[in-house]
Structures are given as structure tokens and as C-alpha cells.
Specification:
Rossmann fold, YbaK protein, 15 helices, 3 domains, about 575 residues, nine-stranded mixed beta sheet, alpha+beta, five-stranded mixed beta sheet, globular
Length: about 575
């Protein structure tokens, strides 16, 4: 392909709306253009990248025994009402109405649709196992679209769905998908880590995410992993063992209310009372569906709202507003406590149960209780680990290792759904004994557009993108440094035609631009190999091959260029 015949609108400056480096580079290098918040046009170079990722995904899914189909983007709301997700997915569900005022959904995922399909087609256990997948645009009404293709309202995803007759069959199907995912991301040039994750609105028994580990702000997911075993989980799921116990005191002291004028944050209260933050228990009020609950954690901890939501088994969870807090406690925000808290369910982190003679709010403005003790001064209805794990804490799996943290970008996810959707939609089959049973399901997603941007976030430098060869839009870019030089042009196009004949994807920059402009654009768009054809090297009968990833430069004859590039590409 000739640059002059390709639409590659590169920019010199970073776009104002871009926050992370991969978003900036994809815009500057002419890969994407914004249409609306979270909605992007994919320009020619980006489309080539996406098609390559798609082809890798398709090959590995087919190899794993999955079969490709294509389902509608537009879903009747009735299916989502049947599954219960019309309410649990909430405002992220992209909804619309037709001219008859019937509710419709723009699919962000297709569990309901595929279950409805199989319900009417598969009747016997002899037709199982079955795995169907599609590659399609998806929609999600993100409250705050950001980071370009990382968190958009429209995106491309591969979603697959397995159907089995029993749990053992699901384990086999699930393992096949995990193996396929590792192969897919490896072929895309991405080393991924599989971590445990929360099932969320998808439901099911277990879930995992595939993360590309990065050390940039584009890694919006915090991953906890053990230094002694293979335990890894995202921040929503990660459990931990506290490394020290705060029960220094053996005897209970008398409860005492003390004045704490104009201090209400943990830092202010503990400094005023001269106690460490872990000797204070925060009491936070939440609206869980239609009731108010109180959650208690140590003052030195952060609450994990996903864990709290799971512990409560509620559909929606949000922090109570200031007016509600004052109505329930009789005090403004900052002075809530469990003592004499009426008609409110109290859920406490397990660490709170080990505290003695600790500090809480007194449900009165400018007052706190000291020497509070569970059982004597208040009771709780439920205990659960509702705190966020912290780096350096103990591993919950091996019990001996320490947790470390890394940043990652989620590019794939897998869910053991079980019978959540098949039961809800009445999708059953007949087993070997002629008994009707619900399908055992799994769900498996890969973000095609996310994978592309994750590769840029992982592989770049100050000059631009560094694509892995397997997903780069072109394998080689040829730069005649001066197109007005007949010899440079002739040699460049001879190499170009030879490469095309050899099946190498090649771009030639035949623009009448200064060499510096071409070099900058070449580095920016990130093609793995560049061939410089200039007057100086041609005097010696040579051209230069430059490796984008390493900066290595070697001189070869024009006749050797194609073969040498093939050798390089094998290892890139």
C-alpha cells in the first residue's frame, strides 16, 4: 500500500480529551477519531489491527471446538426481564423504545439471547456439549466514558457461550476456553495473567479475568498476587489475611462519651484522641435496595463495596446521602456509630469483631464513644470480609505468602454461569434417564478493541507505538528519503514490489515530505520494521533495516531486504 493512497491523518500534538498514553497515540497516529463520548471511528490502520486480532480469536476459538454464529444487536426487553438483569445491570444497559412503545435493549452481552436460541433447538444431552460464539459490536451506557477504547459506549467483543449437561462438562468447557485465551493473547504478543474476579451482574459460581500487566496509568485495574503461590485476584475479589492483631487489651473498659468538637474524619478523630486509626471503627450508612444498612470497618481500612453488596445479596448499593444519615443517626455525617443505632442492620468486617475498647461515632454532633466493645455495647447481624485487601497482607490461599500489587488492563473474562440463565428462561434438555434438566452454562468474552489499545499501552516509547508483529497493520514500512531522487524511488519500489510478491504486508511512504517528517510518522504509527532508502547508503549499494522495537539498524543490499525482513518478523 502506498501512503499517498491511504488515509493516515497523523497529528503532531496530543488530543485534549485523551488522558492516557495509548489513547493519545491512537489519535495522533491516525488510528481512531472520536464521534461522541465513548464512540469512535476506526480508521484504515486501526481496522487492519482489529481484523488481525479478530482472525487470531476466530482461529483459536474454532480450534477449541466453538462454532461461530451471529446474533441480533437489538433485544426485546422481555428476555432481560426474565433473567432479572433488566434491573441488576441498571443504567449501564443501553435501552430504547420502538414506535409501539415497546422496550428494547442494545446488547452489551448475549446470555439471554443465546439461551433463548438454544431453548428452542437443543432437546437432548446427546447434542451436548455445545459452544457458540460471535464477534460483534456491543453497547454499554457508561456513566463516564474514558481512556479511548478502554471504557467506551460502543466496542467490539468476542462473546462465547458453552452448554453442558453437568458440572464436570462445564469444567472441561471452561478449561478449553482458558487454554484458548492464553493462546490468543500470546499470539497477539501479549503476556496475560489470569486473576479471580467478582461475578457481578453476570452471576454464576466463579469468574476470571485476563489482564495485560502494565506500569502506566492506563492500567486501571489493581491486581493482588501472592509472592509464594499462584494466587491472583482483582481488587474487587481479592481476599487477605491481616498481618497483625489489634487486641492488645484483655479487659473491657467502661464506655465513655467524649466531646470531639469540629473533628469527624478518621485522621482528625484519632489525632484528637491520640489513638491509632486501627483502634477506631468507621460506621458507614448505605442504601441497599430499599433499606438502610450500616457497614463497619477499621479506621485504617477502605470498604470494598462489591464485597459488601455480595454479602448483603442486594441488587443496588449506594452510599446514603447526608440527609438520610442525619435522619437515621440524629447527627451529621462523620459521627455515625453502632451504639444505640436503631432499626438498622449492621454488617461488620471480621476485623471489627477482634477489636476491644475501640472508638466509634456517638450519633451526636461533635461526640464520639471510646472503649466501645462488641456484645456489651452493640450487636451485629452479619460478619463478612468487606474491606479492601492491602499490599503486604497475607495470602488467603497458601496462608504463608505476602500480597503484592500490580496494575493491569482487562482484555478477557470468563464466567461459570451454571444454571442462572437456563433456569430463568426455562431452557432445559432431557438427560440419559429422560429427566428434564437445565443447561449448565459458561460465558466467555474478549474485548477486541480493548486488546488493541492494551497492546499500545503496553508497547510504546516517547516516539510512538511499537506494535507486536502479529497484529501490526503492516509488517514493513519503506521510506525513500527523497522521492525526487530517481534512484531512491526506483530501489524503494523494487523492494516494495518484491515484498508484495512474497506476501509481506508493506507500506511505502511515497509522500513528497522531508525525511524528518517521514521518520517521525514511521515511529508514531509503529510498524515493526522500517527500510530506509537514502542517497548515502545507496552509494555503498545498501539500504538500512531498522527494528522499531529494539532500535537495531543493519545494512543489507536491496536484493537481501525482503528475506532479511522475513527473518526478523519471525522473532517480533
Amino acid at each position: 500500500m502506498k501512503w499517498s493512497e491511504t488515509y493516515i491523518p497523523t497529528l503532531r500534538d496530543d488530543p485534549a480529551e485523551a488522558e492516557i498514553i495509548s489513547h493519545k497515540l491512537l489519535v495522533r497516529a491516525g488510528y481512531i477519531r472520536k464521534l461522541a463520548a465513548g464512540v469512535y471511528n476506526y480508521l484504515p490502520l486501526m481496522q487492519k489491527v482489529l481484523l488481525k486480532i479478530t482472525q487470531i480469536v476466530r482461529e483459536e476459538m474454532n480450534s477449541a471446538g466453538a462454532q461461530e454464529i451471529l446474533m441480533p444487536v437489538l433485544h426485546p426487553a422481555e428476555l432481560w426481564l426474565q433473567s432479572g438483569r433488566w434491573h441488576t445491570v441498571g443504567k449501564e444497559l443501553m435501552r430504547s423504545k420502538d414506535r409501539h412503545d415497546r422496550d428494547l435493549v442494545l446488547g452489551g452481552t448475549h446470555e439471554e439471547v443465546v439461551t433463548y436460541l438454544i431453548k428452542g433447538e437443543v432437546k437432548s444431552y446427546r447434542q451436548l456439549p455445545l459452544n457458540l460464539y460471535q464477534i460483534q459490536n456491543k453497547f454499554r451506557d457508561e456513566i463516564r466514558p474514558r481512556f479511548g477504547l478502554m471504557r467506551g459506549r460502543e466496542f467490539i467483543m468476542k462473546d462465547a457461550y458453552s452448554f453442558d449437561k453437568d458440572e464436570e462438562g462445564l469444567k472441561i468447557s471452561y478449561r478449553k476456553m482458558l487454554d484458548a485465551y492464553f493462546k490468543i493473547f500470546n499470539r497477539c504478543g501479549l503476556d496475560t495473567r489470569m486473576v479471580e474476579s467478582d461475578t457481578g451482574a453476570m452471576g454464576g459460581k466463579a469468574a476470571h479475568e485476563f489482564m495485560v500487566m502494565v506500569d502506566t496509568e492506563g492500567g486501571e485495574n489493581i491486581i493482588f498476587h501472592c509472592d509464594s503461590c499462584d494466587y491472583a485476584a482483582n481488587i474487587e475479589k481479592a481476599g487477605s489475611l491481616e498481618t497483625e492483631t489489634p487486641m492488645e487489651e484483655s479487659k473491657e473498659k467502661p464506655l465513655e462519651k467524649v466531646a470531639t468538637p469540629r473533628v469527624k474524619t478518621v485522621e482528625e478523630v484519632t489525632a484528637f484522641l491520640k489513638v491509632p486509626p486501627r483502634k477506631l471503627a468507621k460506621t458507614l450508612l448505605y442504601k441497599a435496595d430499599d433499606k438502610i444498612v450500616a457497614a463497619m470497618i477499621r479506621g485504617d481500612r477502605q470498604i470494598n463495596e462489591i464485597k459488601l453488596k455480595n454479602a448483603l445479596g442486594c441488587i443496588s448499593l449506594e452510599m446514603a446521602d447526608a440527609a438520610t444519615v442525619e435522619k437515621i443517626t440524629g447527627a451529621p455525617v462523620g459521627f455515625a456509630g453502632p451504639v444505640n443505632l436503631k432499626k438498622v442492620t449492621i454488617v461488620a468486617d471480621e476485623e471489627v469483631t477482634r477489636l476491644r475498647n475501640f472508638v466509634t461515632g456517638a450519633n451526636q454532633n461533635d461526640f464520639h464513644f471510646v472503649n466501645v466493645n462488641l456484645g456489651r455495647d452493640f450487636n451485629i447481624e452479619q460478619t463478612a470480609q468487606i474491606r479492601c485487601a492491602q499490599e503486604g497482607e497475607g495470602c488467603p490461599r497458601c496462608l504463608k505468602g505476602k500480597l503484592l500489587t500490580s496494575r493491569g488492563i482487562e482484555v478477557g473474562n470468563t464466567f461459570m454461569l451454571g444454571t442462572k440463565y437456563s433456569q430463568a428462561l426455562g431452557a432445559n434438555f432431557l438427560d440419559a434417564d429422560g429427566q428434564e434438566k437445565p443447561f449448565i452454562m459458561g460465558s466467555y468474552g474478549i474485548g477486541i478493541t480493548r486488546t488493541a489499545q492494551a497492546a499500545v499501552e503496553k508497547f510504546h516509547d516517547e516516539a510512538g507505538i511499537i506494535w507486536p508483529a502479529s497484529i501490526a497493520p503492516f509488517s514493513v514500512e519503506i521510506l525513500p528519503l527523497n522521492v525526487a531522487d530517481e534512484k531512491q524511488n526506483q530501489v524503494a519500489f523494487e523492494i516494495y514490489e518484491k515484498m508484495k510478491a512474497d506476501g509481506i504486508e508493506v507500506l511505502i511512504d511515497n509522500r513528497d515530505e522531508r525525511a524528518g517528517v517521514k521518520f517521525n510518522d514511521a515511529d508514531l504509527i509503529g510498524i515493526p520494521l522500517r527500510i530506509n532508502v537514502g542517497a548515502k547508503s545507496l552509494k555503498e549499494g545498501k539500504v538500512e533495516i531498522c527494528v522499531r522495537k529494539t532500535g537495531e539498524v543493519i545494512s543489507v543490499t536491496p536484493a537481501q531486504a525482503a528475506e532479511k525482513c522475513k527473518q526478523f518478523l519471525v522473532n517480533l
